[in-house]
Amino acid sequence: MKRILFLIIGIALLGASFSAGMWWQKQLYLDICLDLGGGVNPGEYPICVIEKTASSEPNEKQISYACSDSTQIKVRLIEQDFVQVSILQQGAEIIQFSGIHSISASGAKYDSSDKQYVYWTKGDECMIMKNDEIIYSGCKEVN
């Protein structure tokens, strides 16, 4: 009788430790993934971001544009996801903002964090918007 009781207790403990291990593993998994379950069934629809191997220096590109009114736009594009934009008139910087890549139907669009400015480029042209109004357009890339 004691053997059966110890066997039952042993199986119960083994099952509990296995279950706790699975719970811990799931929590660890959810800590590195975005849960899209909406709180109803946590972890049912996770999406995970695979970390890119970091290179010693980011992939960076400098782009210059000349506008018809002699305004210059200088853009520093970092890893296709982030831009730093400087707008110059007569060599003096008048506007500077940083932006992150956002969804666009055509071309590449970058919104400033405060959503006040937009840098939008397609081909070798760009435009700058401020508060949903175009303030510079038809600016051509120069070498």
Automatic annotation (TrEMBL):
The keyword Signal applies. Residues 65-132 form the C-type lysozyme inhibitor domain. Transmembrane segments: none annotated. Gene3D superfamilies: 2.40.128.200. It comes from the Bacteria. SUPFAM superfamilies: YdhA-like. Keywords: Lipoprotein, Membrane, Palmitate, Signal. Coiled coil: none annotated. Pfam families: MliC. This is Membrane-bound inhibitor of C-type lysozyme. It comes from Sunxiuqinia elliptica. The lineage of its organism: Bacteria, Pseudomonadati, Bacteroidota, Bacteroidia, Marinilabiliales.
